Amino acid sequence: MDRNSLFFWVVAPPLLYLYITKVLELHLIFPQLQDPLGLITTLFLYATKPALGNASWADLIKNAASTGREPFTRHIVAVGDLHGDLPNARMVLQFANVTDDLGNWSGNVDFFVQTGDIIDRGDDTIALFDWMDSLRGQATAAGGTVLTHLGNHEWMNAIGDWRYVYPTELETFGSVEERQELISVGRIGRSWASNYTTASRLPLHPSLGAPNTPYLTESELPLSHSAVSFVHGGLSPTYQDLTPFPTRINELSHSLLRKLQKRKQPAPHPPADYPGLPEDATAAEKALYDSNGPLWYRGWALNPEDEVCRDVETVLAKTGTRRMIMGHTPDFKNIQSRCNGKIIIIDTGISHAYGGVLSALSIHYTLTPVGADDEKRWIEKEVVSAVYADKQEIIVVDEREVVGDFRAN
Question: Edge-to-edge strand order for the sheet containing 336-338?
């Protein structure tokens, strides 16, 4: 050991201890400093304090002695409309750390969410849906989760409205009939029916249940609204089938999709006439697909700020969520946040058909114990940010203290 190392490890610690206790007399404030180990613990806590938010030194010292609770973290990445562009989609998922440079699941996130409109306006429909299913399997094997949604364009194609199907995309299927089969009873259609929903509720902490556990009653429990919603268009404040969320919407989605896929496939529009919904579609199923339903609604993106910031509170209360995340209405320069991050619109025109900025949304959630175990106090924190190829911008940081028993398992 050289002279400098000897001084740093052997001579400096007792001198520092004597200075803190005899000169500064901090041991009168923190009894833990009456022994050298207490000093080391406090210095460590001071160095790590920024990660624990606004907890006091005393809280952190108590926390150091607590062994019954563990910090919890969850990382979510969400991506908006992809519209037939596999290369751009792969770039986004790679710089957002969802995938590695080979396009495989990286294991660096807990949840990946795609909000619909994978189809149309580009040629990579088959490749994109196959890739989503591959990532789903890889994520599950690694302990992660992929949540995928049907956008209005998936529904248009299921109906037979092919206005945005490029001739070059049709060639990748082979023929009209082969495309109809693949998206109805073939592997893409089967995946839509089994792996895709129209809405999702994703709890930030597992004590609230698995993804899409329905929120049944309005609650004021500490973590009751520690969740986010995902949908393609938007959850209108006047939509009649909002609750129980997301169960009711997904029940209607499943039943309507089944009717569309099982009927004789109509000649696509254009050039044929618009086929419309099945004759036996219920009023609620028709409302799901109309302009006020979750697939087409644009009010959160287009209505005045004072109006949406007033209306959003009602929807968040009914859905048991803290923020709503959606695609559908593109801004080609940035992910859009309204009402201090309670409304986030993540469609930035990723596809080359639009030429918008490549982007992803990141949510880092932490729940960190503070104080003694019997106090049951925690610091809950969300850091929501927009991730671009060359930068990351913080959208909102929410932090609060909560009290309760919150078990991750």
Answer: 199-203, 227-231, 323-326, 343-345, 336-338
Written as six digits, the tokens of 184 are 């109805």
Distance CA 245, CA 198 (A): 11
Calpha distance 326→344 (Å, rounded): 6
Residues 6+ apart with CB under 8 A from 403: 222, 375, 376, 377, 378
Nearest in space to 322 (alpha carbons), one of 284, 363, 352, 351: 363
Tally of CA atoms within 13 A in the half-sphere of 188 that contains its CB: 23
Number of CB atoms found within 10 A of residue 397's CB: 13
Phi-psi region of 355 (alpha: psi -120 to 50; beta: other; left: phi over 0): left
Asked if residues 116 and 129 have their Cβ atoms less than 8 Å apart, the reply is no
| Contact call for residues 288 and 193 (beta carbons, < 8 A) | no
- pTM score, whole prediction: 0.85
Contact indicator for 224, 258 with CB cutoff of 8 Å = no
Residue by residue, DSSP assigns 250-284 as HHHHHHHHHHHHHSPPPPPBTTSPP--S-TT--HH
Per-residue pLDDT tens digits for 330-368: 999 999 999 999 999 999 999 999 999 999 999 999 999
DSSP letter string, 342-384: TEEE-----STTTT---EEEEEEEEEEEES-GGGTEEEEEEEE
**HSE (side-chain half, CA atoms, 13 Å) at 95:** 17
Cα distance between residue 317 and residue 290, in whole Å? 23
**Among 208, 229, 90, CA closest to 147:** 229
Q: How far apart are CA 16 and CA 383, in angstroms?
A: 36
Give 235-259 pLDDT, tens digit per residue: 999 999 999 999 999 999 999 999 9
Q: Where are the beta strands (DSSP E) in 212-262?
A: 227-231
Contacts of 141 (CB under 8 A, 6+ apart): none
User: Which residues share a beta bridge with 221?
Assistant: none
